[in-house]
Amino acid sequence: MIKMIAIDLDGTLLNRHKKIPAENIKAIQKAAQEGIKIVLCTGRPQSGVEPYFKDLDLGHQAEYAVLNNGCSTHQIEKGKWELLSYHELSLDDIQGLERLIAQNHQIELTLTEANHFLVMGQSVSDLVAYDASLVFTKAKPISFKGLKALKTPIFQAMYMGEEANLDQFERSVDDRLSSQFSTVRSQSYLYEVMPKGITKASGLKALAEHLLINPRDIMAIGDAPNDLEMLSFAGLSVAMGNASESIRQAADKVSLTNDEAGVAYAIETWALGSNDV
């Protein structure tokens, strides 16, 4: 019996236009009304999730979000967001990450914290500005001295660059970084760095334990490499039809694409069981 549904956003809940199909909203509301906990699990920060959570209009009962690729977990009740737990990168971590691009002007280091989208440096490139716009905020340049003065947790870091440049950078540093941190290439232009052992799956696991929900009663839906651990953790894993072959092969089920309201199909078929398939 499914008691919790963990749902990725980009490429999963959202269609190619970054909108939630009406069918997805209807199916999620129906699941919530039947007592199934809805958990949005994404690499996005809070600013990039709040508008979508409002669109879901889940009423006054408590629902949850695992954000920043597992670095922060939030409870949302009556429209109010509460940070339940988090993991952070240290200043020493960030200083080390910055050193890796000291002589590489084709790669930028960005950081997310509770209220800001930051880029290490003196200016904001078009690529960083574009990524910040996707999460409904603006990137702010910051120095290491300015970062120390913030005194707020930095959840995760993201290296950004054009695909070919980031490919080369990832090849040169991944062995070193993956031994110290959790890393994932979530988009062609994004190479993400989190505290060691922190993934969407670790955040989902901690939340499930908090809510006394067994992993076998969790359905997870995703499409990208940063969803793999989450899909493996859940008792029922569903890959979107638009996911790569490797993601689809790793999942128990394959749904329709994100442009075909694949989340709604997955919920109706395997969580609520209303489709005869």
From TrEMBL:
GO terms for molecular function: magnesium ion binding; phosphatase activity. It comes from Streptococcus ferus. Its EC number is 3.1.3.-. It comes from the Bacteria. The keyword Hydrolase applies. CDD domains: HAD_Pase (cd07516). SUPFAM superfamilies: HAD-like (SSF56784). The gene is yidA_1. PROSITE patterns: COF_2. This is Hydrolase.
